[in-house]
Design a protein that fits this description.
Organism: Pseudomonas rhizosphaerae
GO molecular function: iron-sulfur cluster binding; oxidoreductase activity
Low-confidence stretches: none
CATH class of the domain at 24-101: Alpha Beta
CATH topology of the domain at 24-101: Ubiquitin-like (UB roll)
Protein name: NAD(FAD)-dependent dehydrogenase
Pfam families: Fer2_4 (PF13510)
InterPro entries: 2Fe-2S-bd_N, 2Fe-2S_ferredoxin-like_sf
Largest sheet: 7 strands, mixed
Shape: elongated
Oligomer: single chain
Bound molecules: FE2/S2 (inorganic) cluster
Order of helices and strands: EEHEEEEE
CATH architecture of the domain at 24-101: Roll
Strand content: 15-25%
Distance between the termini: 60 Å
Length: about 120
Amino acid sequence: MEAHSRAPLFQAVASETPSRRSVTLSFNGEALNVPPGISVAAALLMSGVERFRATPVSESPRAPYCMMGVCFECLVNIDGVPNRQSCLIEVVDGMQVHSQEGARDLQFDVPLVQVLEVQP
Ligand code: FES
């Protein structure tokens, strides 16, 4: 995994008082200790994660862009639920986060297609 391979691009403002509490979550099986009250995207970025998902077609790496719920570049799997916008979800102790790789499986049964006869 590329986390911690170099200094994270996203860091807390130096003037902020560091929190003594921390939340432990995992990303692709690696435990991360992060401050409480921040988004999953912020937690992953400040932990050095730069690849959140791969696109379904070209499998290009993606990471958060807008950090406000608009671009959908931050999609991850959280606690078994795919397509979660990590910039909008607050970290919770014990959260299991995984990167999204390629296309998602459909979570529901696709109804059978009805064939309609068209009258001339
Ligand atoms: S970073 Fe744009 S929707 Fe999450």
